[in-house]
Design a protein that fits this description.
about 425 residues; Beta-Lactamase; Heat Shock Protein 90; five-stranded antiparallel sheet; five-stranded mixed sheet; 12 strands; about 55% helix
Length: about 425
């Protein structure tokens, strides 16, 4: 951008200088020519009176003095054919003046000016001055050099000013871009300088307004999510009391554990809403996955499902929070129970990932994915559900520096592989 501004200013300034300096240079040459011609004419006219009244000897002395002091060549052709002053041939203009007509014209090497005068005897004489080309252009070269230097100086000054302005404009643009990148990283307190030059300042002001609006919307969203804890507190308390009232301790413990899981899920949503995007989270995947598999194994036993597990003992630190990883495992195992018939077996494997982190595999013996189903798209489902389970798992895996892939299990069902990145080292 800076280079383009400089090129534009250079082209514009050059056109202006050419349009200004070329006519001025021609004018300087014309003025120099006219000045030399006027000086030669004045020298010739000074001899007019002497030719008319002076004797030949005095006229010869006067002509020699004028010729010696004048930058042009001064000659007098007398009526009897003598040439006084600078030697000169009888040119056509001299012959014309001898017949009584004064004239001037350009000849080889310069300009010739002739005047017809009458001597004391009434005969016609001729005063001739010859101005050389060097005299006609005296000082023109130096004046042109000065004009050229002036043009270079003006061009340099214009480029210097344009460079300063372009630097300020480019710097302001870079600052606005840097602020936008900071906002993208979650630094919502970043603001651009609205005093930036011209349109960049308008963009900076609009970006600041947008950042303020984003902060306001996020604050409202966090407050709304925070209200969720108060809204579900009473129903959860009622469920817990009902669970404690059950006669079977095993059922009471299982339902109580479910209520606790709902409470943890709600709390994790609130914490995630309040947590800044730049905050880091980590947990031991081996502990979390083992706990969630144990929780779902009870339901698997009730639905006559065979559970095969191969879980690493750990520790397996990953770049995901405990609540997020629990939600991921619950989403995958919940899909198994929701989309496969009772009695369908499933397997859960957890191991270290090459390069750090962990790899989780959940495979079932169900019917698999419907043909052409895009279940990784948020809200898409091939089984009549909300379509959020796999999307939650995918987003958690990507936020942890990994990813999620779908495949076919050896039993013909669905196999979901989740890669989780390693936790940040202290």
């Amino acid at each position: 951008m800076r280079r383009r501004v400089l090129l534009l200013v250079a082209a514009t300034t050059s056109l202006v200088l050419v349009a200004f300096l070329v006519p001025l240079a021609l004018l300087v040459r014309t003025v120099a020519t006219e000045r030399a011609v006027l000086a030669a004419t004045a020298d010739a006219q000074a001899l007019t009176a002497l030719v008319a009244v002076a004797d030949p000897a005095s006229l010869a002395v006067a002509v020699a003095q004028v010729d010696a002091t004048s930058p042009s060549q001064v000659s007098v052709f007398t009526a009897d054919g003598a040439v006084l002053g600078a030697p000169a041939p009888r040119t056509p203009l001299v012959e014309l003046a001898a017949r009584g007509s004064s004239a001037s014209g350009a000849v080889d090497g310069g300009r010739e000016i002739v005047f017809a005068v009458r001597d004391p005897a009434g005969r016609t004489g001729v005063i001739r001055t010859f101005v050389t080309d060097a005299a006609l252009t005296a000082g023109v070269g130096r004046a042109w050099l000065l004009l050229a230097g002036l043009g270079v100086v003006l061009l340099a000054v214009g480029l210097l000013v344009a460079d300063r302005l372009a630097r300020r404009l480019v710097r302001a643009t870079i600052d606005v871009a840097a602020v936008s990148h900071r906002l993208a990283r979650g630094e919502l307190d970043a603001r651009a300088d609205p005093a930036a030059p011209v349109e960049v300042g308008v963009v900076a002001g609009a970006l600041n307004t947008l950042a303020g609006r984003i902060s306001e919307l996020l604050r409202e969203e966090r407050e709304t999510v925070a209200d969720l804890s108060h809204r579900v507190r009473t129903p959860l308390t009622a469920l817990r009391l009902d669970a404690e009232a059950l006669r079977q301790p095993e059922d009471a413990a299982r339902i109580g554990a479910g209520v606790d899981a709902v409470q943890r899920a709600v709390s994790s949503v609130i914490d995630a809403a309040r947590r800044r995007a730049t905050d880091t989270a980590e947990c031991d995947a081996a502990v979390v996955v083992a706990e969630r598999v144990a929780f779902w194994s009870v339901l698997a036993e009730d639905t006559e499902r065979d559970v095969r597990t191969d879980l690493a003992t750990g520790p397996l630190p990953v770049a995901a929070g405990r609540a997020d990883l629990e939600a991921l495992v619950d989403a995958l195992l919940g899909n198994v129970f929701a989309h496969t018939p009772d009695g369908s077996a499933f397997a859960v494997r957890l191991g270290p990932r090459p390069g750090g982190g962990a790899r989780l595999l959940v495979a079932d013996a169900g019917p698999g994915l419907p043909a052409g189903a895009d279940v990784l798209r948020r809200g898409a489902s091939g089984g009549g559900s909300t379509g959020l389970g796999l999307d939650i798992a995918r987003r958690t895996a990507e936020q942890a520096g990994g990813g999620l892939t779908l495949g076919r299990s050896p039993e013909g069902g669905l196999a979901v592989t989740v890669n989780l990145g390693p936790a940040a080292r202290p």
